Amino acid sequence: MATVEIEYCAPCGFLSRAEDVQHALLTAFEADLEAVALVPGDNGVFVVRVDDTVIFEKGDDEYDVDEIVRSARQCL
After folding, report:
1. What is the pLDDT at residue 52?
2. Residues 41-71 pLDDT 10s
3. Is the entire prediction scored with pTM above 0.90?
């Protein structure tokens, strides 16, 4: 069972984006996940980690929910 952490910038209004990723991951991998945690942050952060492995970081990748799900699949 894997744990996913979605750290998002609260002041930037990234909560809905984080919820979209959370919903997509739970829909795709519900049986394989122990938890999908939303972690408020600041300074423009938006990072998705599966068991401490970064699979998406806003500064490095273009935001695409389907691509984040594909990246998560490789870690599960």
Report:
1. 92
2. 999 999 999 999 999 999 888 899 999 999 9
3. yes
**Residue 46's closest CA among 2, 14, 19?**
14
What is the distance in angstroms between the CA of the first residue and the CA of the last residue of the chain?
A: 8
Closest CA to 21 of 74, 66, 71: 66
| 8: its two tokens | 């998002």
Q: Which long-range contacts (CB under 8 A, 24 or more apart) does 28-32 make?
A: 28/69, 28/72, 28/73, 29/2, 29/72, 29/73, 29/76, 32/1, 32/2, 32/76
